[in-house]
Amino acid sequence: MQFKLHHTDQKSDARAGTITTDHGKINTPIFMPVGTIGTVKGVHQAELKEQVKAQIILGNTYHLYLRPGMETMEAAGGLHKFMNWNGPILTDSGGYQVFSLAHRRKITEEGATFASHIDGSRHLFSPESSLGIQRSIGADIVMAFDECPPYPSTREYAKNSMDLTHRWLERCVTFMNETSPKYGHSQALFPIVQGSSFDDLRTKSCEFIASQDQPGNAIGGLSVGEPIEDMYRISKLCCDVLPKDKPRYLMGVGTPANIIECISRGVDMFDCVLPSRNARHGVIYTRNGIMNMKNAKWRTDFSPIDDRPDAAPTSQTHTKAYLAHLFRVGELLGPQLATLHNLAFYLSLVTEAREHIIEGDFADWAASVLPGLERKL
Amino acid sequence: MQFKLHHTDQKSDARAGTITTDHGKINTPIFMPVGTIGTVKGVHQAELKEQVKAQIILGNTYHLYLRPGMETMEAAGGLHKFMNWNGPILTDSGGYQVFSLAHRRKITEEGATFASHIDGSRHLFSPESSLGIQRSIGADIVMAFDECPPYPSTREYAKNSMDLTHRWLERCVTFMNETSPKYGHSQALFPIVQGSSFDDLRTKSCEFIASQDQPGNAIGGLSVGEPIEDMYRISKLCCDVLPKDKPRYLMGVGTPANIIECISRGVDMFDCVLPSRNARHGVIYTRNGIMNMKNAKWRTDFSPIDDRPDAAPTSQTHTKAYLAHLFRVGELLGPQLATLHNLAFYLSLVTEAREHIIEGDFADWAASVLPGLERKL
Predict the structure, then answer these.
(1) ipTM > 0.90?
(2) Per-residue pLDDT tens for B303-318?
(3) CA triplet B343, B346, B347: central angle to 5 degrees?
(4) How far is B266 from chain A (nearest CA, A)?
(5) Could you give all domains of chain B from N- to C-terminal order, each with its CATH number?
(6) Cβ distance of A336 and B335 shorter than 8 Å
(7) A168: closest CA among A106, A94, A109, A221?
(8) Quick check: B336 and A302 CB within 8 A?
(9) Could you tell me how many helices (H) and strands (E) chain A has, helices first?
(10) pTM
(11) What are phi and psi of A205, to 5 degrees?
């Protein structure tokens, strides 16, 4: 994996770059749609490529490990072939789902034991097993196995958790060095900064993570309930310490406005279930504001869902009234159209942000779009 | 609406023709996907056109009348514009749903009163109101308001019901003659033959229906629980009486094998929820047989869902293992892929049937494909 930094904004820390993987290039800043169990919910792979214009998607190690399982995954030749997606893929380490979704979890120096949320079966995720699973999945970018402390955490908990994450990282790096990819393409490890909302811990974690000299770095443990100011402050603090010549991935963030704010603080990569999950509940993001399609007022609005030329094609050809009707009657096509819309919207937003970074007017552009992004329609 | 009969098979009653509507041509024999409430469940309109290759779709008057309602429908400019489908549309009369779905229904000479299955509100469907609603929906082909007797029915019930359907038909014809289309394109009325499983009633009904000299004719009251032999016998009996120069539409039929059998008996048009409803439950139709994707054995079958060049594109690029995985984990993309597959399969089947009718070897071709169509895999 290679990263080339093309431009850094004069009035902010926003950056435009390009990541090159064996499955293609990714222009940063980028938003990565979440394809939890080998599918971005409700979206065909061809639509992801041609309509959403996704350049990289996420898979969740925890979910894929449980189903279809690694025997099937390896027999398929990895996730790219299993789901028929030939673009770049990033997998998380499974740690976050163990802490948020699994039952009876217990953390030890070795790793985390847990019971499957599906059948209660017991499993162990460790730095080695998580990366071993990610080798079997075959993502282009794999994430270090970390502990994401809950918010709020005491300083002591956050410090101990961070130290454990650092020790686990060293084992991740060793495992990656001692093993090879399974499908002929390379896999890049991204370590994850932790440290909760404590600035000194975050600084220390960034320095440690940077010292591992991996191809990219991630900021974890944010968007877990902390005040928005904390998220912005910690993001900036981390970007100021993390190396400039490597991409920075802020995990699990966020709203369109969050993404613009964090781009301006130096983040290059984002993922979040928000646009797809909210879409399935009828919430639509536009440049003019946020619409809840379950609101009766849209049922007689025969204007396009979004008439911008960079909106999803189906958002330009279908009306708000039609989409509101589909949600009202509970038809599958409602979530399908809404998900396509929101994901295409997120991608068009980061694409335009990148253009303005390159053109040198990102800060002014960001200030001009932020009010619309947060408006309720 | 015009119908041109091109070929009739020598060894069977199979016919190849073309229906011309103001929204385009329909090559017969044809299968019409069901788009109940303004959407074929789980399928984008562009997919219907480009991947399923649907030439005409159905809308259900009962459902569309209740939601979005005719005020919204007229404000949208009719169903074509409301759902953004510019091909031909056929609407049923609403009668079947009143008898199968609505509550507290009561039939009188005037029509049928019923309570909505959604909110219990009371409504009346009559020949005039059904056709009035179908004028507001704006389908290219509209169906006469009929009573579909349950199976089994006594001869007396079937006779009285048929006579009522005939009297209602005369009111439908009068209403159509005295009113005009609302959106500038023409609407053709298809009367419906009834008479349950009684051959003499069916013959009489066909003669009466034919005497009304409408642009096409439909056979109703089949596929309601009668033995398959009855369905085939009555279909043939009706086709033998109904005029040759008009299309014949067998309502609500059926499996792939049913469709081939009824094409050979002279039917030109079919609709059925079977391919789309069964798809959502993981049942996939192929030339080699029927697969239930919830069966564990498919989870490790990495061959394409269907590698025939006329299969849905996604069936050629995705594996059975992937589709089985999607159904196992309950992902939306499973029903989406399965629905695309089954509808494209039905359309490819009638398209190939038509080619063989034109080439003159339909009967041999039908005999060669029928065993595969009914096999369980």
Answers:
(1) yes
(2) 999 999 999 999 999 9
(3) 85
(4) 35
(5) 2-271 (3.20.20.105)
(6) no
(7) A109
(8) no
(9) 15, 17
(10) 0.98
(11) -65, -40
